Amino acid sequence: MKLSVLILTYNEEINLARCLESVQWADDVLLVDSFSTDQTVEIARAAGVRVLQHPFKNFAEQRNFGLAQGGLKHEWVLHLDADEVVTEAFRQETAQKIQASKYDAFRVASRMMFEGRWLKHAAMYPSYQVRLGRRDKLNFIQAGHGQREALPPEGLGTLTEPLIHHGFGKGLHDWMDKHNRYSTDEARHHLNSTAALDWAGIFSLINPTRRRWALKQLFMRLPCRPALRFFYMYILRRGFLDGVPGYHYCRLLAIYEYLIVLKMQEIRRARRDCRCELEAKLKAEMGKAESEEQGADS
Q1: What number of CA atoms fall less than 13 Å from residue 220's CA on the CB side?
Q2: Rounded to 5 degrees, what are φ and ψ at 159?
Q3: Rounded CA gap, 184 and 215, in Å?
């Protein structure tokens, strides 16, 4: 199969070998590394994988850098994170779908693994991201802590076979660290966004990616979001059917949502305090100028 693979990494020595083993069939694998300080680069080079290093700004820029500067051999590119695994069924479907495809890219689902179990319900499977696309067509734009495609919906197909996502492969501590950073990005993104609510997207049946982002826009405007997120995932999406791991995961996502809420409040306070300080400074300067004018008149 003529397919290039682009993998993003930063300190992924725990996950990388498993990911690389799952794409041994690919003759062009590129690692875009954010200057790892562990053995990530050494593991990649020992496996015969090409490595480019680039400072990390965000996921979209990192993927676009790999597309532009990576010298990828093939027209089609599969975008992976190091904690993801390609199954044989996924490989076979991909090989079939990209032959004379009318699409420029494909949506891909993933199976979240947690505490030794696939979270079929709690992780809202299938939740799609565009991860497979033509090298010269698929580019990414940053949205919150993640990225989304910059392609019209008519250019997108959907794969039925998922990737396997070991999102907790480096342990709960690493997951908490990442989501602490992600919550800051999400809070800033929402407060800086001027986009109107996409009501039509909420009810879109032909574009699940648009519907997902529109629902996220709506959700970010609701009160009591941490409690709502737990209720939606654990009860409405039947996360309870995933047993104890499902309960733990839903609680973690509610905590993550609470962090976003608190950080949005913190940013608002900081901006308000900054405005008050500027206004006070401006008033003081104006008062000083008026006093000087009065002194000159007298």
Answers
A1: 23
A2: -90, 145
A3: 20
DSSP the chain: ---EEEEEESS-TTTHHHHHHHTTT-S-EEEEE---SSSHHHHHHHTT-EEEE---S-HHHHHHHHHHHS---SSEEEEEETTEE--HHHHHHHHHHTTT-S-SEEEE-EEEEETTEE-TTTTTSS--EEEEEETTT--EEEETTEEEE-S-GGGEEE-SSPEEE-TTTT-HHHHHHHHHHHHHHHHHHHHH--PPP-HHHHT-SS-HHHHHHHHHHHHTTSSSHHHHHHHIIIIIT-GGGGHHHHHHHHHHHHHHHHHHHHHHHHHHHHHHHHHHHHHHHHHHHHHHHHHHHHHHH-
Residues of the chain with pLDDT > 70: what percent? 91
> What's the pLDDT tens digit per position in 34-85?
999 999 999 999 999 999 999 999 999 999 999 999 999 999 999 999 999 9
**Parts of the chain belonging to CATH 3.90.550.10:** 4-170
In the chain the first and final C-alpha atoms are separated, in Å, by 89
pLDDT of residue 150: 78
Instruction: In whole angstroms, give the CA distance from residue 171 to residue 18.
Output: 16
Asked if pLDDT for residue 275 goes beyond 90, the answer is: no
Q: Which residues are within 8 A (CB) of 270 and not within 5 positions of it... i.e. 6 or more apart?
A: none
Give 4-170's CATH code, choosing from 1.10.1740.10, 3.40.50.300, 3.90.550.10, 1.10.10.10. 3.90.550.10
Token pair for 183: 């919550």
Is the distance from CB of 167 to CB of 112 less than 8 angstroms? Answer: yes
